[in-house]
Amino acid sequence: MPLGPAVAGEHIVAQVGSASVHHAELSAQRGGACHRCKSACGAGLAARAEVRVTARTSESLQAGQSVHLEADPGALAQISLLLYFFPAAGFVAGAFCALMLGLGDLSQGAAGLVGLVAVLWLAQLTLRQHFSAGAPLSAVQFSDK
């Protein structure tokens, strides 16, 4: 989710809407330009749309305060494996099991789909447990100097 105009350097700047002891509800403005190339291609996104996210925090935050958002290290790799590689492997494993049982092509395809859906369901459970805040983000307080 590119957040063009709300980016300061490599960090996304967001406003705290509400905060509890360990989590904060944040909002940031999303623009049409990628913060890296500034090409304003839009990437199919509505310009200047507000994005709301939940992030973990270890600091005491106040409503209206500006914070930096940081992604957890390795989160993108974990999410990619869980949502792309493992479901594809589940499909292949299901189809292969049906092939080894001597079932026909239609049954192999159906078994592959069962493997795909089963692994996607397990990935969803894993992501919900691992990222209990709903997103792999951390809010870091910074000074407005």
Short description:
The chain is of the alpha+beta class and 145 residues long.
Describe the 3D structure:
- By secondary structure, this protein is an alpha+beta fold.
- The chain has helices at residues 75-100, 105-130; strands at residues 7-8, 11-19, 23-30, 49-56, 66-71, 137-141.
- Helix content is 36%, strand content 26%.
- Strands 1, 2, 3, 4, 5 and 6 form a six-stranded antiparallel beta sheet that branches.
- Helix 1 (75-100) packs antiparallel against helix 2.
Question: What key phrases describe this protein's structure?
Answer:
rod-shaped, alpha+beta, 2 helices, 6-stranded antiparallel beta sheet, disordered N terminus, 145 residues
